[in-house]
Amino acid sequence: MSVNYDKDRAEKFTERILANPNSSQLGVIANDLLREYHRGYPVENLRSLLANRDECIVITGAWIASELGAKGTPLLADISRLIGHPQKKVRFSVIDCLLVWAGPSNQAELASVIGLLSDPEAGVRWKVMDFLSRATPEQLVGEAEERRESYNLAHRLLDTLKPDDRMVMVLKESEDLSVSEIAETLGWSEAKVKIRAFRARQALRKQAERMLAMGRNR
């Protein structure tokens, strides 16, 4: 069987990333390594980056994983361990990976993504909402009988909120307004905005988890 990838090049790129993760050429090297993976270099070799203690190396490895498409599925367990990584760039990449790799049988992994609805980073929370809007019904509720078209679950979840809570979430996450800007817009105190935002995130998380639980019990 012919081999399209260059093993020596792939190993060299990996070694360069491990040796100097702060290199100004890191992006170029990562893209070169990604190219070798797409050419057939075994994805299991990416574990040396994903399991590294250096955050820059993990960020690079997670990004490469998110660009592999379905061929990265053997790394599902490795990438799932990074869902709580302190670097938001890693969490971003993990969400992208799980959208493609996780199926109806991976309820624990899908639940871990939904858990990020309470992430301290607004960008990560909105990334989860995007994940929910693009995920298949089978991924979210465990329906394996037949595949239906993806639907906008994010809006369904928002519709479960009280009008004031929904408005806060839209202004904060979609419009990216600060607490003070939301308070000025709605004529509220900043404390009220913070409380509403906290309650809204908790309500969204509980509703999403309830949907997953319904799927598991079918």
| Strand segment tally | 0
- With helices defined by DSSP (H or I, 4 residues minimum), what is the helix count? 13
Shape type: elongated
- Proportion in β-strands: under 5%
Structural Rg: 20 Å
Helix percent reads 55-70%
Structural class: mainly alpha
What string gives the helices and strands in order?
A: HHHHHHHHHHHHH
Q: Estimate the mean pLDDT confidence.
A: 85
Low-confidence stretches: 143-151
Sketch the major β-sheet. Answer: none
Termini, distance in Å? 44 Å
Structure write-up:
The chain has a domain at 1-81. The chain has helices spanning 7-19, 26-38, 47-50, 55-66, 76-80, 88-101, 107-114, 122-134, 137-141, 153-159, 163-174, 179-186, 190-216. With 218 residues, it is an all-alpha fold.
How would you briefly describe this protein structure?
65% of the residues lie in helices and 0% in strands. By secondary structure, it is mainly α. Helix 1 packs antiparallel against helix 2.
Q: Notable features of this structure?
A:
elongated, mainly alpha, 218 residues
Task: Furnish the topology, listing elements before pairings.
Layout: H1 7-19, H2 26-38, H3 47-50, H4 55-66, H5 76-80, H6 88-101, H7 107-114, H8 122-134, H9 137-141, H10 153-159, H11 163-174, H12 179-186, H13 190-216
Helix pairs in contact: 1-2, 4-6, 6-8, 11-13, 12-13
